[in-house]
Amino acid sequence: MADGRFAPSPTGDLHLGNLRTALVAWLFARRAGSRFLLRMEDLDPATRHERHVVAQQRDLAAIGLDWDGEVVCQSARLDRYHAAIDHLTASGLTYPCYCTRREVHEAAAAPQGPYPALAYPGTCRHLSVAERAEREAAGRLPALRLRADGVTVRFTDRCRGLVEGAVDDLVLRRRDGVPAYNLAVVVDDAAQGVEEVVRGDDLLDSTPRQLHLAALLGLPAPCHAHVPLVLGPDGARLAKRHGGVTLADRLAAGQTVTGVVGMLAASLGLADRGEPLTAVDLLDRFDPTRLSRRPWVLTDPDGRPDRPTADRS
Ligand code: GLU
Prior knowledge:
- By secondary structure, the chain is an alpha/beta fold.
- The chain has 2 domains: 4-76 and 228-297, 3-Layer(aba) Sandwich (Rossmann fold), CATH 3.40.50; 78-185, Glutamyl-tRNA Synthetase, Domain 3 (Glutamyl-tRNA Synthetase, domain 3, Alpha-Beta Complex).
- The protein has helices at residues 16-31, 50-62, 78-90, 101-107, 129-137, 181-191, 207-216, 247-252, 257-267, 279-282; strands spanning 4-6, 36-40, 72-73, 94-97, 143-146, 152-157, 161-166, 171-173, 196-200, 223-227, 230-231, 296-297.
- Helix 6 (181-191) packs across helix 7.
């Protein structure tokens, strides 16, 4: 048993890649007879839209995914995140950073060694009191960063095997005062008793950061399965512009819900092409050890019956 979750950000409609990850996360949990939780990662006020929260839940339910208990919304849990940040600050593990996003991009070299892309190079780590005062006087609002001391974290991912990554001085609280994703996810997964995090492998780089934060906060760490992303026909990460990428698009183009679930299942090597299926049908077929390590390229952007190029090796 390992309780799982799906944690979308309500920034728009879920696309087939999101639905596929949600389906895999649900299969991991339900096949093990575990709880499956839904959390809306709606911390960013600029992208918080109730209509997306509603539409995302509607689409997950439509493809046959169910979840236990109330849906948790991060926007209602700010106190917990600030308490965790205060705890780290009281332990001397944070510092204010005055860099703009642009400055970080310019200063961050291409990924180096075990560091993630855009790893923060530590520009503000050793500012003197006078240097801080100078920046504040110039009206710069600081973000708060973790003093990670270049620690390296290793973990075993159920899809990717042994992964090692260095932790950079990640942001804990943004300049606008909003707690950062990496912090909130760690606090929430622990508070909700999540034992297995199944998510897109675009977040693989963040996992060493999150495991390190969990250790610093004395929180239990979940295990991980990072599922390959879905790509559009041009090889870029699937996006709205590819067309035909949401459930609504597919239904409008004449596909059925079981057709869409069958297409996702085929992309996971769990079904033959064109086989209509429900999520429950897949419970007996799902084998976490046989998940593909390669991305799935969606070749039918306009919603015609699919021609998946799933790697079933
Ligand atoms: N909210 C994140 C996203 O939609 C996922 C977070 C996670 O699964 O840890 O990309």
